[in-house]
Amino acid sequence: MKKSLILILVTIALLAVGFYLNSPKNDNRNTSKSGNIKWVDSPDLQVGPIRRESFSDEQVDQIREIHKIMGKYDGQTLEKWVDDFRRDMNPDREIAIWQSMAKAMSDVEKRSGHNDVKNKESYKIVLMSSMAPYEQAKDHMMINGIPEDEIISIYKLFSRYYSATAQQGDAPEPASPAR
């Protein structure tokens, strides 16, 4: 049951970021005209078309490094990860987001003493932190055994890594951490 929930969350994360990158005005990721996050049921999401046939060796290496950390939580093969990135309009930006998520998750693993149960829950938080501000996401999270202050800390961790990445190149704004 938990593995399927994680798989659903990963699929939602990949599709949500893909939809964001495909939107004509993607500077307000996942927001409606009113500025609120749009929540979509996973059955309503559709996988986008293949937009890129291949990646450079550097991009494949980056995806491989992301998969080493993140792939153990979603159960997807490296080939599936590469295929998912092939569907993005701007895979370099998507890779940058996932690299920040992987760095945050690596830190979480070290902090938790590599506690598998806690890390699986933390993985969901890292995914959500890349998609929506905490205040708008907290009611949609199904997190067990992690207190709110730790959830906020994970949000801030991702935001810190992503902000550093965004300063280096063209990247969308990260979801805002809780204040």
SSE order and pairing:
Elements: H1 2-22, H2 57-74, H3 78-86, H4 91-111, H5 116-129, H6 134-137, H7 148-168
List keywords for this structure.
179 residues, globular, disordered C terminus, mainly alpha
String of helices and strands: HHHHHHH
The count of strands amounts to: 0
List the domain count as a whole number.
Answer: 1
In the predicted model, the low-confidence regions spanning at least 5 consecutive residues are: 19-31, 170-179
What is the number of helices? 7
Radius of gyration: 15 Å
Which class do the helix and strand fractions yield?
A: mainly alpha
Q: How much of the residues is beta strand, in percent?
A: under 5%
Shape: globular
The helix content is 55-70%
**Major pleated sheet:** none
Task: Compute the average pLDDT.
Answer: 80
Straight-line distance between termini: 33 Å
Task: Report on the architecture of this protein.
This protein has one domain. Helices cover 60% and strands 0% of the residues. The protein contains 7 helices and no strands. It is mostly helical and 179 residues long. The longest helix is centred in the N-terminal third of the chain and has 21 residues, at 2-22.
Compact description:
The protein has 179 residues and is an all-alpha fold. The chain has seven helices and no strands.
